Amino acid sequence: MIKNIKWLNWSNISSAIIFVFIGIMLISPTVKGVVIQGLMKIGLFQPDIPSKKTSIALNNKNSSIEGVLFRNEKGEVVNLSELRGKVVFINFWATWCPPCVAEMPSINNLKQKFKNNANVVILMVDADNNPEKSQKFMRRKNYDLEVFTPASQIPEDLFGTALPTTVLLNKKGQIVFRHEGGADYANNEFQDYIEKLSQE
């Protein structure tokens, strides 16, 4: 005689919940972004603060910001080389990218911290080149981040293909930080690093 097997036990229910959650994460970038945000809050996805050695290695790539242009939502063109004398934080992102969405609150926090510092500029560059969609996203989320789109060829050392990609330029226009993937830019050490660069 075959015994009745109880399928509705805690082990099977919890397994089903986990599979459903993983399925939702694979389908929904928003849910995946929320999960990554949660992991950022417990200390994961922290940006590595560049050492002097790292900065020198990045600068020795012969990278040039000459002729790199971005356009804001008013149609005004920003020439990256004209921002020498300022620390420039550039984030390449897209609305459909979960790690981009996850790190956005920390970048908004960064913007608030340096809002009154004329030596720090934050450029949020929509890699999809779809300003209407990205501006709508910023308004919906109440972020105080101006959206830019590429207005020229972007060198690979600034942006290759990975989203998000974040680059930090010092006042000389040299790349001193480059990170592919999501990160928590509300990190105090990272913000202190920008503060230090802005005072050099």
UniProtKB/TrEMBL annotation:
<keyword id="KW-0472">Membrane</keyword>
<dbReference type="Pfam" id="PF08534">
    <property type="entry name" value="Redoxin"/>
</dbReference>
<keyword id="KW-0812">Transmembrane</keyword>
<dbReference type="InterPro" id="IPR036249">
    <property type="entry name" value="Thioredoxin-like_sf"/>
</dbReference>
<protein>
    <submittedName>
        <fullName>TlpA family protein disulfide reductase</fullName>
    </submittedName>
</protein>
<dbReference type="InterPro" id="IPR050553">
    <property type="entry name" value="Thioredoxin_ResA/DsbE_sf"/>
</dbReference>
<feature type="transmembrane region" description="Helical">
    <location>
        <begin position="7"/>
        <end position="27"/>
    </location>
</feature>
<keyword id="KW-0676">Redox-active center</keyword>
<feature type="domain" description="Thioredoxin">
    <location>
        <begin position="40"/>
        <end position="199"/>
    </location>
</feature>
<keyword id="KW-0201">Cytochrome c-type biogenesis</keyword>
<dbReference type="InterPro" id="IPR013766">
    <property type="entry name" value="Thioredoxin_domain"/>
</dbReference>
<dbReference type="InterPro" id="IPR017937">
    <property type="entry name" value="Thioredoxin_CS"/>
</dbReference>
<keyword id="KW-1133">Transmembrane helix</keyword>
<dbReference type="InterPro" id="IPR013740">
    <property type="entry name" value="Redoxin"/>
</dbReference>
